[in-house]
Amino acid sequence: MCRFLAYSGLPVFLEDFVASPCHSLIHQSLHAEEAKTGTNGDGFGVGWYGDRPEPGQYREVRPAWSDENLLSIARQVRSHLFFAHVRAATGTATTRANCHPFVHGRYMFMHNGQIGGYGGIRRKLEALIPDSLYAARAGTTDSEALFLLALAHLEQGFTPGEALAAAIGDALSLMLLSGTREPLRCAAALADGETIHAVRWSSDAKPPSLYLCEKPDSIVVASEPVDAARECWHALPCNTLATVSAGRVTLTPLTIALNEAA
To answer: What is the set of domains in the chain, with CATH numbers?
Structure first.
């Protein structure tokens, strides 16, 4: 399982969460506490919004703990909204194109979890991505496929929360049709430069960990608490959508409907 962090609030340096805290994301890349494996060394990525509508992005296949460029970027870049992710691969290659976060236009996405039996439904899942977006598929992960499917639903007029739910529903429908017994587990975050939409959902009773920390000047969504102020961190309920906008968090149930056309 991967580990990730999404920040929204007053502009801060990325290092304040990626590198400096006692359980920073770089620390989690070697010592994750709430994942199947403690090591997340199959690449990493950061994405941030600055003065332009589209986010900046840096991804690399080296482990986060050994990349001096990450430390330099995190020390220099300040942002009001950024993502950071350390990867533990689940069956796909360790390549830059498979590292999170994924970016398309003004949207940014990252994911932790699994689509059960992905190898058996990958071709059918990719077939649901419209031609207008399929050319943007650079990697092979289920995560990127979910991102592009969510963007396709956004183009259809869905809200971001509805689009994420529909993308999960697309995958779940194909899983059920294929007869896989493996679960679909999903912790994910989607941003547009102003708002973060984070989901925690699972088809079984074992969703990936995901926490919220609300402070007067910022809101953080993370796989694990990054600091010792544990009274701030609260687990996001399972099967929930968290919308972070204008310094507020709204929680709503995430209902997944099957795609009968899948």
So the answer is: 3-253 (3.60.20.10)
If one counts every other C-beta atom within 10 angstroms of the C-beta of residue 155, the result is: 12
pTM here is 0.97
Asked whether the CA dihedral 102, 107, 110, 111 is positive or negative, the reply is negative
The one-letter code for the residue type at 126 is E
Q: What are phi and psi of 82, to 5 degrees?
A: -150, 160
Cα four-point dihedral sign 57, 32, 208, 14: negative
Nearest residue to 16 (alpha-carbon basis) of 62, 63, 80:
80
Whether the CA torsion 8, 13, 18, 21 is positive or negative: it is negative
pLDDT, tens digit, for every residue of 188-210? Answer: 999 999 999 999 999 998 999 99
Nearest to 190 by CA among 101, 97, 59: 101
DSSP 23: T
SS3 217: coil
Residue 247 near residue 7 (C-beta atoms within 8 A):
no
Looking up tokens 């689509």 gives: 115
